[in-house]
Amino acid sequence: MCVQNASTLSLVNAYFFQILQGYMHYQYRMIKKNLFEDLPDTIVELGPGVGSNLRYFKPGTTLLAVEPNEGMHSLLKKNSEKYSIKTELMNLSAEKLPFPDSSVDAVVCSLVLCSVVEPDQVLKEIRRVLKPGGRFVFLEHVAAEHGSWIYWIQRIVFRPWLWFFEGCHLTRDTHQTLRSANFSNLKIEERSLPTVFLPIRPHVYGIAIK
């Protein structure tokens, strides 16, 4: 999420995602359980929102949460306590991370690269802060195949979706952006999820190694 100050819309979104926690777990549980297993005790997460990933981290994990949307902060803190995660909140954007070069073991983000202002810069920063061999774990919705009925829907609802979800782009080619980010190793998979939210059915997920 990429807004700098709390607003009515930010708070609406925060409670919207809080209400959706159970549904999101149902949709993503198998992918996330596989992606997030064996993560280190300290993790950097970009755009954790209200904490949809917290249930998949080991209790006692230290989470360095880069979340510029202040509307999410209160629920993120509450959910961190629920799942026994030690969350350190950083009200910063993902385009400029506050960590030294080669200092981080793992960076996580899910449903975030759709909303950042400069996804190429975010991936550059992730590579900068990761230690050699460090992991970037991602799960993102992406543009549908051009000419498909899902892509047609994405184009129709693009502007209202962008406004309501505070900068969420439905038609970003995040798959190609990840492939162009110069990680030493990239394992990426594609899947169409049967979610009721039709515009975000196409997904990519995987692990990139510095």
TrEMBL record:
Residues 45-138 form the Methyltransferase type domain. GO terms for biological process: methylation. It comes from the Bacteria. One of its GO terms (molecular function) is methyltransferase activity. The keyword ATP-binding does not apply. Keywords: Methyltransferase, Transferase. This is Class I SAM-dependent methyltransferase. It comes from Leptospira ainlahdjerensis. The lineage of its organism: Bacteria, Pseudomonadati, Spirochaetota, Spirochaetia, Leptospirales.
